[in-house]
Amino acid sequence: MATRLRLRSPGRAPGATDPVAQALQALFGAAEVAPTLISERLLERVPVHRLQESVDALRERHGELRQVRRQKDLHLLVFAAGAELVWARLDGDGRLASFVTGPGALTARSAARTTVPVPRSEAPTLDLAPKPRPAPKAVPAPAPVSARLVPAPTPAAAPVGPPVATSTAAAAAPVVPSGPKPAAVARLQRVVLAYAAATAAELTFPWLTDSATGWLLILAQTPAFAWYVLRTAPTWALPPWFRSLPVAPAVVAALAFGHVLGAGLGWGLPGLPETGLCVGVTGLAVWTWQRSRPVPGAPTAHPLQLRSPLRGGTFVCTEAGGPAVNRYADASLSPGGDRTARYAVDLVQLGEGPQWRGRRALGLAPATNERYAVFGHPVVSPVDGVILAAVDGLPDHPPLAASANHPDGNHVRIGTDRGVVVLSGLREDSVQVRRGQHVAVGTPLGSVGNSAAGPEPALRLRAESSVGLGLPFRLTETRGDLHRGKRISIGD
After folding, report:
1. Rounded distance, CA 159 to CA 272, Å?
2. pLDDT tens digits, residue range 58-73?
3. What DSSP designation does 465 have?
4. Which of 19, 152, 232, 484 has the fewest Cβ atoms nearer than 10 Å?
5. Sheet holding 82-90, edge to edge
6. Which pLDDT score is estimated for 184?
C-alpha cells in the first residue's frame, strides 16, 4: 500500500514552488517508489519494480538525495557524493508522466523541443506514445536491466569496464510516425534520374566535339565519371545492371574514335566545353575521393578488428567512410555534432533469387519493412565483452518515417578493453541479452529492425571510446577501410 511521503528538509525546499522538483524529490528521496507519484500510463509501460531498481542504482552510486535544483528546462539531482541531470514531465494530475536521468536528459530535452506540444484540453498528459504494450516479465539480475525501459538513447560516453547504470529513462516515447513520406520517395527518384541524365549526357559528348583533342579529353574523364557514380549513387537500391551503366560512356567514347577519323578532325587546341568537362568531372572525382576517406583519428588510434555482426549473405555499406559519403561522419564534423558516430556504418543485405535481382528491397523505396531483405536478419556479437546496455521495446517505424526521439532505437552496447561497440536499430522484442552478461564473438544479440533514426531497416555499427570519441574499426572479413557501396559476402 502506498504511504504518504515527506520531504527530508523541514524548511522550504529549493524546489518547493516547482511541482516537477517536488515530484522528483519525493521519488528519489524516498526509500521506496510510491505508485501514487507515477501516472497510470507510465506504470503500464514501466513496472514499479523496474523504476525501483533504477532509483536504487542512482542512490548506490551517489548516496542519499540532498536537494533538487532547477536548471532552465532540466533539473539537477544533488546527492551526497554526486549529481545527475534529469528531464521530467508531469501529467495533468501532477504525477510523473516521463523522466530521463543522466546525459540522456539532454537528448530528451532536444527531442521535446522538436515535438509539437499537445494542448491540455485535448490530451491529459505529455506522453505521445502509442497505446501501451503489456510489460514483459522481469529478468532477475543483480544490476538494473535496461531492456524494456523504452529509454532515451544511451549516453555516448559510457564507461568501459563493469556495467554501471549511466542513464534512466521512463516513457520518453517516440512520436507515432505518420507513414512513408511521398517527398522522400520522390527525392530518391530524382537522385536516380539525375544520375541517369548525367550518363545520357556523357554518351552524347563524344559525338559533339569538333577536334580529336577534345575527344581525347572526353575519353580521359570517363573513368572518373564512372568512379564517382559508383561511389556516390545508391547502387544497392537498383538492379545489378545499373552498376554497368556508368562504364558505358567509356565504351561509347572509345567507339567514337571512328567518327573522329571519318570526320577528319584535327589534333589542335580543344574547345572550352571539352576542357571544362574534363576538368570539372576529374576535379569532382578527386574531391569526392578525398572526402570519402575516413576522418583521420589520433596517431595511436589503430582500427579495432571486428567480426561482421551479420552472417550468411551478401551485405553492402550504405553509410560508411568520410563526410562526402557518410551522413554520420558529416554530422560529427559540424558544431555540436555526435562525435561518437564519426566512423559509424550502416549495413543492409542484398536479397537472393530472381525476385530480388540483387537489390536490398523489393522496389525503389517500399513502404513496409518486410520488403527489405535485411529486416529480421540475425545479429551476432562482433567482439568478446560485457553488455553495458541492452535496450528493447521501441517500435519499428515504417520506412522513411523515422523519429529523432531515439536515434539508436533498440540497441546493445558491448564493453571491451579498447572501447565500446554499439549495434543499433534492432527489431522490437528481439534483443536476447541483458545488462551485465558476458558475450563472445558470435553470441546472438537480436535481429535487424527499423527502430533507429534512419530511413529504412539497417544495422548501424559503431565503436566509441570511454570519453565519447568515435573509434575507427574494420571487419576481418574484408580488406581495407569500409566505404559507401562496399559489398561483403559472408558465409554462415
Report:
1. 59
2. 777 778 888 888 877 7
3. -
4. 19
5. 65-71, 74-79, 82-90, 96-101, 168-170
6. 62
